[in-house]
């Protein structure tokens, strides 16, 4: 392909457009945090790193996720603990993934690369997590980079430079593992690629070097954990503690321990729950667009991946199957929790698979029947499952496919079709941004910044557990500062003095997220929630969603 000057390359403007949209998405549609894993996991430990406590470890399995925590800590050290600094890592990861998609598809027409990038970046949940304190987009980048390295070695370098690519692959995989152990879900995919290459008698040095490098780095990692904790398997024990529900409400994942639940729950998980989640969240869009490309290969060519397109198609199929069926424990059969963020790594792979075939359909109506059948099937299943507003998205995609199938091959028609698909993918993101503007996160942040953050007077703020976490995070986890947040469960242990100001922070959204009732709380706190204003309660700030009250008689908290 002839090189164009950079200023004439549509990929540059696509990349700049995505950067601009990331800013719009973050500042015009910021939803905030969940208040458990993100803040008390990555935010808290990121602050530890920012304070110089590198490789800080305890019994919490989140503390071992250095790949994401270290970068978060770096930006906290540079810019302080705030939502902008928290967003940098995930945003940069998304942009790096975009560049890698462009690189993988550099031999295709430029419009194919642009289309793949739009399929990836406009995935509803990829964009949602683009500014969140979560490592799942980082895992998506690492796994995609790993498959891209194998692709480059096999198809661009024609099997040369085996040690170089084996070393790079091992580094990427170990980085993925120290970011989040969910990368182990894809072990069967790498293993099957190895087996196929061995059976086809090709690339054996590459896999030998990869195995040796991975073993060596794994042993170094275990030795490092041993030096820090005295137990090389401390991380595995921490994960087991999480499965055993030893970390308290919100910090464990015992609800994903299928070994302790009825068989019906496990069967539901591995049979159709993942597909149901994909349809209800919109992730099925990238996958449905990739299906015609997967079906275009003869089975023998596909399973031996002798071409680049067959390779990516096989990687996608194996990744979907592995993420659905692979166990997360060696003790019992425990598929991963069906939280949609755990499957974000599928999106860039699906985008690379889908883009060339979707572009060919837009321009020449190739694979017309496959696109019609798949789009119709997804819409029918979505309607049957009552997935809500996404039914309209699937209806729009099906309608666009039907319309393109009957219209002649014209450039403006192809462009209109692709533009329509882009708008259909964009619609849920815009809707999510509108919903975020109705959420109270930004308002409660302003209340804490304006009324509490700079207070010099010793103060106690009582609230629900998620709002407590928000407050601790927004006060930069200052455990010895004058203002301290406590949830209502700590009332029995708290002592109140006349020198300490006592506040109650009410937030309807975090109350709902915390799933708590104030019925059994002291009368003065119930008064705050029920809009009763005795003389002992001073209104500091009050709106429909968020309110801050000062209690002038803290001893009332010891009464029913």
Question: What's the helix and strand layout?
Answer:
Elements: H1 10-28, H2 37-50, H3 66-79, H4 83-104, H5 110-121, H6 124-128, H7 136-156, H8 162-179, H9 187-199, H10 204-229, H11 234-243, H12 263-281, H13 284-295, H14 299-304, H15 308-325, H16 346-364, H17 368-385, H18 390-406, H19 411-438, H20 441-451, E1 459-463, H21 465-474, E2 483-487, E3 501-507, H22 508-514, H23 523-529, E4 537-542, E5 546-551
Helix pairs in contact: 1-4, 1-5, 2-3, 3-4, 3-8, 4-5, 4-7, 5-16, 7-8, 8-10, 9-15, 13-16, 13-17, 15-16, 16-19, 17-18, 18-19
InterPro entries: LipidA_mod_glycosyltrf_83, RgtA/B/C-like
Transmembrane segments: 12-30, 85-102, 109-127, 133-151, 163-178, 184-199, 206-228, 281-299, 311-330, 342-362, 369-385, 412-430
GO molecular function: pentosyltransferase activity
